[in-house]
Amino acid sequence: MEKPTEQEAYDILKQLEVPYQRVDHEPIYSVKHYDAVLPGPQVKNLLLKTKKGKQYYLVILPDEKSADLKELAVQLDISRLSFASTEELDVLMGLQPGSVTPLALHHDEEKRIQVVMDDCIDKQDTVGFHPNINTTTLIMAFADFERYLEWAEHPPLFISL
Question: Which pLDDT score, from 0 to 100, does residue 146 have?
């Protein structure tokens, strides 16, 4: 698999005519340990898997929320969730820890990843994601992000997290 690049993210957004605000910043490995303020509501992205690793979930939730993996598993009607390994992240999306972004979902050609979004995310507002590197965040309208997900053939499942 070709690795996702920053330029690839920009090219796709240009192709889809998605306007965005680019914000460069220090590397963000975890929103838990990041103090800077970015424009608009911020989210975090978690790549999770089922116990046997047959199904993967890219969970997108507000950065101030903690993911209750037991409750999420109940809502998804599966026995248990855990974090995907570094190797799985690389194989599925071509990414490294600290740079997990839905803007690389089109690399999941086998469609093994289900996007799960917290339904409290304001669909009338903006949302920000890394363009395959963790030193930049691209802020875009939520509706434009949904167009990207449609293009990437990864429709989101909205649930209360």
Answer: 97
